[in-house]
Design goal:
25% helix
Amino acid sequence: MHEMSVCVALIAEVERIAAERAHTVVSRIEIGIGPLSGVEAVLLERAFPLAAAGTCAEHAELRIRSTDIVVRCSQCGEESPARANRLLCGACGDYRTRVVSGEEMILQRVELGAPAARSLAS
């Protein structure tokens, strides 16, 4: 399942953020997943504990929010919501649209826990 590799990449980014801010604990991770992203939220939730084991995010809560599909019409220029199997312009009904959002997986928020202890050198 490719959700495991997605989780591994997610955890790597979260660890980078935590280290950059000198924290050793991540308490919550919030992501947005578009319906056209190819990532299954249920499988991502199942893979998360395995990918996070032994990391600063091991006990983090994973919150997943589904994002909406939005298209921009090449004919009238309007942006409108759309459905996965019907990417039509909501304003004029034309089929010549471009997906603006709904294909992405976005790391939206990382809540950090306690900062790393600083060593006291004599």
